[in-house]
Each structure stands twice: as C-alpha cells, then as structure tokens.
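Continuing the series of single-chain predictions for the mutant panel. This is the parent chain; the variants come on the following pages.
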Amino acid sequence: MSEVLRIVLIGSTGLVGRKLIDACIGRGNVRLIAVARREVKLPQGARIELVVADPKDWGEVIAGIAPDVLINALGTTWKQAGKDEAAFRAVDQQLVINAARAAQRAGVRQLVSVSSVGADARSKKFYLRVKGEVEKELSTVGFKRLDVMRPGLLRGARIDDSRPIEAIAQAIAPLVDPFLIGKWRPYRSVSAEMVAQAALGLAMRKAPGRFTHDYEGIRRAKREWIKVKE
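Parent structure:
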C-alpha cells in the first residue's frame, strides 16, 4: 500500500463535503479528518475522524493534526447568511482564509479549495466577487501547491437546506448542458460527487504551483481518483 495521505476537510456538512466523506469509504490510502462546527452524521463504513470545535480554534486544531493537505468545501448562501454581507463573508471568506493561513503556518503543503465558475474579484455580483477575492487571498498564503476548483451548478440532494430555485435549475441542467460548448463549457453543471472525487484526485498531485480547474479539469481529476490503487 502506498503512503497514507492525511487530509483535513472543512465544510463536511455541505453537499460536496458529504460526498467527499462517501468517496473515502473503503480507501486505505487516505486518512480523513473533518473539522466542523457541529456534529456530522457519518455514513456507515466511513473512515473519518471528526473534530468539533469553535471556528476561532480551528487554526490550533489543524496545526495539531498536521495534515498533508487541507480541502476547503465551506460555503453558505445569501439566505443562510440572513442576507447580510458581513455574515456571508464571515464564512465564505474570513473562515476560509483563517483556516488556510493556520494550515500553511503548520506546514501543510497543499490546499484544495472549492470556488465557483465565474469567480472574479472585480465582479458586480456579490457572490462571485467574494469568491474571486478569496481565490486572490489564497494565492498569497504561501502553500507549495494551491488547487482552486471552479464548478458550475452543483447537482445533488441537500440535507435540511431547501433551495427551490436551485432544484429547478438542477432539473433543467441536463437538457441545457449539451448546448454549453466552447467558452461556455465551463458553465456546465457538475455532480457534487464528481467535485468531491476531483478534490481527492487533486490532493494526490505533488507538483508545486497554483492551478485553477474548471469543468474539464474537474473531470480529469475525478478520473485520477478513481484510478488510484490502495
């Protein structure tokens, strides 16, 4: 068996985070540790350790674990944030950046971060502007390797999080996706399962640098994870 990769996951209660936990079931080549604000219901057979801590203590927790890779799947919504910009930034920006900086100081070599297609620090759309600002900040933290994933619409069933408009978009997406070609191809919808598996595939890469992955890059990284042998 190859060397076991130690991964810390933040955002384990979300759509991608839950699929990432599922993807590690039966995989002896990964040791997954989730750091969360609350208890997480784990699927049967999951090989994962869960550390519940106040977000202000996450840096200390991550430093104590000393993982090889930090995967960020954190994210809230405008509705969940009470339609308050400061509350939205507290999770999607400040918590992410603080965790990343703590991980880098602790010697973590790589960060894999889930962002969004269209992320741009100059965007007029608040959500995309914040995502772009986070990407920009993360690039200055100092990881040996930084992988930013930019998926389009995420497909998958959410738990205790009703999003009627998103549900309609998910239903329509398979009909629209084939027409998104050329420069629009990155905007194709993608399953949360694929994003989760791609994040794990990227965590296996060793080459240093900063990399951004859109729809095609996510598909390639997923295949790498599927091919990994224990």
